[in-house]
Amino acid sequence: MEKNENNKKNKITPWTIIRAIIILALVIVIAYEGVMIYRDQTEYAVAVNEYDELSQTYVKIEEDADESQKNTTDDNTYPKLDIDFAALKEKNPDFIGWLYFPAFSEINYPVVKEQKVDQYLYKTFDGTSNKAGCIFMDVLSDKNFCGLSDMVFGHNMKNGSMFGSLKTLYKSDEDILKDDPYVYVYTKDKTYKYRVFAYYTTVKGSDSYMEVKDHDKYDEYLQYISRNSMIDIPSDIKFDEYPSLLTLSTCSGKTGSGRRFVVHTVKVETYEN
Q1: What confidence category does residue 72 fall into, taking pLDDT thresholds of 50, 70 and 90?
Q2: Is the dihedral of CA 218, 219, 223, 229 positive or negative?
Q3: N or C: fewer beta carbons within 10 Å in the chain?
Q4: For strand 136-137 and strand 108-113, is the pairing parallel, antiparallel, or unpaired?
């Protein structure tokens, strides 16, 4: 009798096999996810290190610039950066300028101009394959930053790099741009100063990404922005003379959701380098 009881306890049932398979599958999934997370974090670290090195090697605040010029909201001054354009161009012929957004100190990157759609979506400045990608201008935009509406893209990185810090605009109650709503683009010959005037969440393929090639489209685009913006467009900004617009775009929400977050800026000053 006791022997029969032991046989029943040791008997392998279909449910025992199924449970073992489920447990094994869960272990494999967890291990796989762990490996993927480690790989992603390693790639992100490589990208961050690359851009830190670029910034430290090829960009510095001009030594003769006083404190008011390094960080300022005065309309007649701007952060003076000494950028080695020749060296950056040599490293990547698609390099077109340097983007600096003082309100988000993390946004301080070289910008490349893609030659085909999504060319730099998963490629760093030096051409290395990497999920972090780099900051790149849309293939239809003007490489001199003088189009009616130019578009620059960057990934929404969890660690805040690339355009990852932009999400704090809609996730924070603090008016982050109150004291410094400006974005700067440095090219070889000119420095452009842009002012943020709108931002909102949207979706991939929306009219936020429409091509603007004439004044009628420009007016239509501004109307669309006004209807969707999370903030009121400042009344002191004038668009009568059709100043260049620059839009910063990044992902929003879960990967693959198709949601986007855009920040619209308008060119307010041009400085000769």
Answers
A1: very low
A2: positive
A3: N
A4: parallel
Task: State the pairing for strand pair 136-137/190-203.
Answer: unpaired
Q: Are 135 and 162 in contact (CB under 8 A)?
A: yes
Number of domains into which the chain is organized: 1
Q: Kindly state whether residue 100 falls inside one of the protein's structural domains.
A: yes
Can you spell out the DSSP letters for 81-131? EEE-HHHHHHH-TTEEEEEE-TTSTT-EEEEEE-SSTTTTTTB-TTS-B-T
Query: 3-state DSSP helix/strand/coil percent for the chain, to nearest 5?
Result: 35, 25, 40
Specify the pLDDT at position 77.
78
Residue 52 inside a domain? The answer is: no
Q: What is the pTM of this model?
A: 0.81
Is the pLDDT confidence value at 36 over 90?
Answer: no
Q: Is residue 246 part of a domain?
A: yes
- At residue 137, the 3 state secondary structure works out as strand
What type of residue is 211?
A: E
CA-CA distance, 136 to 241, in Å (whole number)? 27
Q: Are strands 245-251 and 149-153 parallel, antiparallel or unpaired?
A: parallel
Residue 99 burial (CB count, 10 A): 22
pLDDT at residue 215, as a whole number: 98
pLDDT at 175: 87
Q: 203 lies in which domain range?
A: 93-272
β-strand pairing of 182-186 with 95-100: antiparallel
Provide the pLDDT confidence category of residue 76 given band limits of 50, 70 and 90: low
Q: 79 lies in a domain?
A: no
Query: How far is 264 from 157, CA to CA, in rounded Å?
Result: 20
Query: What's CA 162's distance to the chain center, in Å?
Result: 5
Position 111 confidence tier, pLDDT thresholds 50, 70, 90: very high
Comparing 65-69, 102-106, 210-214, 247-251, which segment has the lowest mean pLDDT?
Answer: 65-69
